[in-house]
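Illustration: HTH lacI-type domain-containing protein.
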Amino acid sequence: MEPTRMARITQRDIARIAGVSQTTVSFVLNDRDEQLARVPEATRARVLKVIQETGYVADPIARRLKQGGMGMIGVYTYESLFPLDREDFFHPFLAGIEEEAQNRDIDLLLLTSGRVGGRRGGLSGGATRLRLADSCILLGQRMPREELEFLNASGFPFVSIGRRDDAGGPVPHVAADYASVVGALVERARARGHTRFAYAGHGTGVESYTDRMAGTRAALGDGFLHLVPEDGASAGAWIRRIREEGVTVVLAEQEEQFAALRAAAGEAGLEVPGDLSLVSLSGSADPSGWQTGFELPRRDMGRRAVQILVDGAAETAHQQLLGCDLVPGESLGPAPDRG
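Result:
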């Protein structure tokens, strides 16, 4: 049987074609000085020639077992697509991961599991994919609890970018310190004379929403108006309620709430920030610099995720919060004089 017609070339095939033992082939493939010293140069050249001619590719899982690790980190996203577009919210995380991996001379493996019902199938049904890497970084706004429980139970080293609630145990993560930065923005608003606040957003469900709300409650107690998207009210209805309650500043959980409130305020004849101040809690940089808010340390979070895995901290369920940079902007102004 001609080598080029073989469905899968093995080390045994290489040994047979080259006329050497399988151990010799293994020595050549491992490329270790102490082993190669036992293989004549002519024999090594003959084995390498057969490898090249047959297109043999070593089984990465088998090599990992023999060598004690491949220096490879898997990256899995729960978003619909990998964040390769520079405008994508998750792209800076991936850029930070890549930078630190290069610094550490580590390869990255992008894990793209199959889809179930139009969504990613997840990792729990594809354990063999995980075996291709030594550890894994998880990206995405929403991560199924059962996936995190599976990873915790498997003992496979992983770290989540973004805080996650316990799932069969603590979940290793690197996350933004939302509570502290929201508290700092509330204090900045108070310094401008604001006393009547509103929070526009879910404030529950996804951990990042919960953390934003926790920061708001820590700073304001229950003394604020909560505008919930699930109520079905339009931004125009929110503006009417804001005026009825005497609110002068709104903390907008995400960009969609910020944009909707700004547009509705304009339609109602209100100036921002003259009549109503808006503060963005999205964590995304506003290219114009007009929005008051903060910027997530996304690139640093990606770098730190790699560091946690390489340093072995993931095995101790390491959890770390990184500070966010305040963006002064112009959408937070002095409280209007209602006297």
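Reading the tokens back as a structure: The chain has a mean pLDDT of 84.
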